[in-house]
Amino acid sequence: MEIDEIKSIWSDMNARLEKNESLNKKILNEIMDNRHQTAKEKLMKYEVRYLILSAVFSLITPLYYFSGIFSLVGCLLFAGLFVVAAFWQVYKIVLLREMKMDVVSTTELLQKSLKFKIITRLRTIIGLSLMIPFFVVFLMVSPQLIKPEIMVGMGVGLVVGLIIGLTDYFRNQKDIDKLINCYKDIHELKS
Question: Would you give the end-to-end CA distance of the chain in angstroms?
């Protein structure tokens, strides 16, 4: 084999290798983009669902006042709680929408996703720690609700709500972790 033949074979193999490397990189980018979109879509659905629930409950709560179940202050407390929750959901949805791979660097994506995880945890911790004082104040301004059958119903509702809420919370945390891991993987690939 002559040196020119070896150079030709070497050049051909080098061109094939570059072509394969380019194709592998393209496929890997598509896989990462799909992972990113899937994790982000799950989180977006979760946040939108809770935004709708918060908005609906804030609109339904005044009906309890007009039907004589809640006092005006109790109605305002509950409606205010759901309005604050709705605004919180809007904030989280905006934060998710800012996570665009084609616009923001992977470092910023990672920072935004970590911020999203932190504020989600804070919401849960703060919400759970304020639940007891909230209900104490609510019952103080709505003493007509302090009846055994109503207290049992509220207790059951509270337990069921906690179970559903915490189950959703832990599922949501897994999706947030998937998004963070996706951004970490993308960051490592680009480095």
Answer: 40
pLDDT in tens, 13-49: 887 877 777 666 666 666 666 666 788 888 999 999 9
pTM: 0.74
Question: Which residue in 167, 178, 184, 170 sits closest to 38, CA to CA?
Answer: 178
How would DSSP label each residue in the chain?
Answer: --HHHHHHHHHHHHHHHHHHHHHHHHHHHHHHHHHHHHHHHHHHHHHHHHHHHHHHHHHHHHHHHHTTSS-HHHHHHHHHHHHHHHHHHHHHHHHHHT--TTTS-HHHHHHHHHHHHHHHHHHHHHHHHHHHHHHHHHHHH-GGG-SHHHHHHHHHHHHHHHHHHHHHHHHHHHHHHHHHHHHHHHHHHH-
Residue 118 has φ and ψ, to the nearest 5°, of -65, -45
pLDDT in tens, 107-148: 888 899 999 999 999 888 888 888 888 878 888 888 877 888
Whole-number Å distance between alpha carbons of 34 and 44: 15
